[in-house]
Design a protein that fits this description.
It is built from eleven helices and nine strands. By secondary structure, the chain is of the alpha+beta class. A hairpin with a 5-residue loop joins strand 4 and strand 5. Helix 3 packs antiparallel against helix 4 and helix 8 runs antiparallel to helix 9. Its EC number is 1.3.99.-.
Length: 403
């Protein structure tokens, strides 16, 4: 007789998050609530069981992109792809649910459905939107977003070095990009370059396999290890005029894309701290010291209460900024303040979660270490805290202090 180990029971999928202390989820419509429930169920059943293993191996579960897209929550903001009427709060909440289980998976999905699709949705012609947005929303096409360069990060507005030179109906791109998520396997990469004729920023849709385009995975990362970040080399890459984003003519147009996606990073930071907090609460209830669960000790409860306060304040900020996006009243400074504040609170919260887990908190087994490490990347990208504070400071004082 052969004995087999029965499969582990499927994880419980909560209808409500304990970390949503003031019930912000109730702001979603019933249709949005149902969609969030499907996303939460997918993340708990399909992603959580494999997240630690893929993170440790620094590999990406690309095979889950299509099944996730089938839930109908990819690219829902665009007329060409919308399955149902939904709000920016809903789209942010979906991002939070992804990061709550795995911030790397959130980045993987967000690069394609956020950065890449937003570039096409906001900057593409009707023909380009019709060509690219539906297959991206269906999970048949994966996108990437190539803006950051080896020598240009925070100073992208002035320091972009990748060039685009037009020859008739063809553009020739030369330069390099760095930290480009999904670039090693994406079907299409949005490349941002300066037009050598007018020195203005343009966007280009570069297909994987185009001659002169090379994407090399960045190794030895210690944060967001599932995300396949790459160095990109562009050597005389030829792109047809038909693949230039037709409504992008300046950095201001690019900034419209970044404003929308910066909101998404705030929600991602929120999900990252909720995931760490939930893991810490579970651990403190199970771990006993001096004959009692450590959850029963005052100092532990103080840290958990501080973490919950950070989460609650951050949800409020994320929700209001998303509402302003729908109202058309959101400005750069609003998105910047949310990104700076929420990522700072995230950094504190994941540290508190790791602290209450003691030495065990540095292993993947407690569920905290991955969030703790991933938070460092989320804290930095889409504008550092300092750069976002300068955007807010300019709004407050009327003086730009960037240089």
């Amino acid at each position: 007789m052969t004995l087999t180990t029965p499969p582990a029971p499927a994880p419980a999928v909560p209808d409500r998050l304990d970390a949503d202390f003031y019930g912000f989820q109730d702001l979603l419509t019933p249709v949005e609530q149902d969609a969030v429930a499907r996303v939460r169920d997918f993340m708990e059943r399909e992603v959580r069981p494999l997240a630690d293993d893929y993170w440790e191996r620094a590999e990406c579960p690309v095979h889950l992109f299509k099944p996730f897209a089938e839930l109908g929550s990819v690219g829902a903001a665009w007329d060409e792809t919308s399955r149902f009427e939904n709000s920016a709060v809903f789209r942010g909440w979906v991002g939070m649910e992804l990061a709550r289980v795995d911030s790397s998976f959130c980045t993987f999905i967000g690069v394609s459905s956020g950065l890449a699709m937003s570039s096409i949705g906001l900057g593409g012609s009707p023909e380009q939107r019709a060509q690219w947005l539906p297959p991206m929303a269906d999970g048949d096409v994966i996108g990437a977003f190539g803006l950051t360069e080896p020598l240009s990060g925070s100073d992208t507005a002035r320091g972009l070095r990748t060039t685009a030179t037009r020859h008739g109906d063809t553009w020739v791109l030369n330069g390099a990009k760095r930290w480009i998520g999904n670039a090693t396997f994406a079907d299409v990469v949005v490349i941002w370059a300066k037009d050598t004729a007018d020195d203005q920023v343009k966007g280009f849709l570069v297909r994987q396999g185009t001659p002169g385009f090379t994407a090399t995975k960045i190794e030895r990362k210690q944060s967001l290890r599932i995300v396949q970040n790459a160095d990109i080399s562009l050597e005389n890459v030829e792109v047809a005029e038909a693949d230039r984003l037709q409504r992008i003519d300046s950095f201001r147009d690019l900034a419209n894309v970044l404003r929308v996606t910066r909101d998404g990073v705030s929600w991602q930071a929120l999900g990252t701290m909720i995931g760490a907090y939930e893991a810490a609460v579970t651990y403190t209830k199970e771990r006993e010291q001096f004959g009692h669960p450590i959850a029963s000790y005052q100092l532990v409860q103080d840290k958990l209460a501080t973490a919950l306060g950070n989460i609650t304040a951050s949800i409020g900020l994320c929700v209001r900024v998303a509402q302003m996006q729908d109202e058309g009243t959101q400005r750069d400074q609003h998105a910047a303040l949310a990104k700076a504040f929420v990522t700072t609170r995230m950094r504190e919260t994941v540290a508190l979660a790791r602290e209450v887990c003691g030495g065990n908190g540095i292993t993947l087994d407690t569920g905290v270490a991955r969030y703790f490490a991933d938070a460092e990347a989320v804290y930095t990208f889409e504008g550092t805290r300092d750069m976002n504070h300068l955007i807010v400071g300019r709004s407050i004082t009327g003086h730009a202090a960037f240089v």
